[in-house]
Amino acid sequence: MRVSQITGRRTNSLGWAKSDCHTCTSLGRHCDRRRPRCSPCLAEGAVCKGYVQQLNWERASQRNRKHRSKEYSQIAAVETARLGDTTASLPKPDKFTFVDHAETQKRQRRRSRTQSKSSDTSWSQLSPVAVVSIDPECSDDLISPVSSSPSWSASSPHTPSSVIGTQEIELRLSPQISHHAGDIESSLSFFHSRFAYTTLTFDVNVNPWRACLPAIHEDLPCVRYAAVALAQRQRAHFSGKPEGPNTLHLKAKALSLFASHLKHLSFEGGLSTSLLLIALDYAETGISNWTIHLRGAFHILESAGGIRLAESRPNLRSQIAMLIWYDVTAALISRYGPVFPESYIQALMAWQADEEWSILGLNGMPDGMFLDMHKLAVQAAAGDKTDLTVVYAIQGRILNADINRGDKYQIMMSQVWQLGLLLYCSRVFPCSFPIHAAASKKLEEENVALGSEGSQQSLLDPHELGLQILEMASQIPSHSNYQKQCLMPIILAGCEMSAADKTHRKIAIDYSERWKQKTGIWIFDSGMEFLRGVWACNDVGEDAEDVVDVKWKTWTRVFVPKPGHGFLFG
């Protein structure tokens, strides 16, 4: 249990809750239900995790919330009118509750008071669980559920509840959506139950995408517009049809309101909007000016108080972790440095609890490597001022990272990322990549490197690293999210394949095409653009015999750093 320095007097303006707080419930102790923090938690100096909230879409003015000034509503109305009426205005639902369609005809018994106490306010706690059967050879879409239940089974992010076999996999997935695609409730339900899982490795109790949804109540509907646009975009990609003009119109509305009235948004709403706008862009392409959204999110946080805001807010921590992940992965490719400082990651890792979320669960990167990944991005932006001593220390920590946790395929995913970062070092810092004999021996013992039996100053061949990455990634089941999360290492490895490496190039091509189709996210298609750009610069003809024996042109020379423009492969 983390200890928080709680200062100041507590007011009772919010009255008393109807059920015990989550902290007291988990400890099985008496709770006096005072708001905003109960007395037992205050007395122990512990974080009071709050009270049960009903999951429904309600106008803020219809719930027990503070009424926002009428000025905000007038601003939103004027802005909507200014943007034109090319599409029907997006309604704000009076009431919407997520329903598991497989259980709609079953009357649930009224839950006892004891049972209701065990509820959690996290949006992910309310997600349906689907058990599905898969044929890996003929899965054209994300795994379709065959049965579902509204129950929730929490699991540690380091031990995901998934069993990968030859024919069956058990994951928490979305129910099928039967509403009309243009309906706002249907779109929000699709976002809640489908897109919220798309980017994750496995379920986490604090889902960063669902953490955006409470902000749809705000009078300035930036989050609502962005979430519906994102759902419509992904649906269009799943169906293989061009997205309608309404998607672009909603995105334009969200951007306009966000840019013009940022001061009127709560920081939760502003941060959620930034995260959704990034997702809107990478759902369409991996090539964009990512720093605009990231700097906006960082400015919102700094203006509201900085990273300290997240100390007692798990949802906020999860959202910030996702933003920093995109920041670091984009910075690695662009070599222009991350927007978020190192202190943010250090704070997140210090406050993180395994039962909430993990970088592994969110993005597939072993948590112990995340800070070093950020340090690499900083050094890559330093150019001639790169501190090679720092780079060498990072390389050593990556080599010695403990990645032998979890099942077979989770370990393989972690090894792919380990090799991917080593490959990155070999190309971005080619003069600073000496591998000591002990480190080379460790790689051989783990069967994650080829060759490299030389002296202390021997170099690990980038081409051999690329071969190992692609071969290992191809051994992870093609329907597994573990393979999906290997995008950046696979792209970097593919860049090392010559025309003579047709088999390994095909692994990268098949991977990108398959996961673009499965996820409805075209970031995988942009990865192929990146690869083909490198291959075109190194191939003279289609056959291996036509390739001229010249020095290999690396991806760092093909895609030189450009301010305000970069690739996002995380």
From TrEMBL:
InterPro entries: Fun_TF. Residues 84-122 are annotated as: Disordered. Pfam families: Fungal_trans_2. Residues 92-106 have a biased composition (Basic and acidic residues). It is found in: Nucleus. One of its GO terms (cellular component) is nucleus. Its main location: nucleus. Keywords: Nucleus. This is Zn(2)-C6 fungal-type domain-containing protein. It comes from Cladophialophora chaetospira.
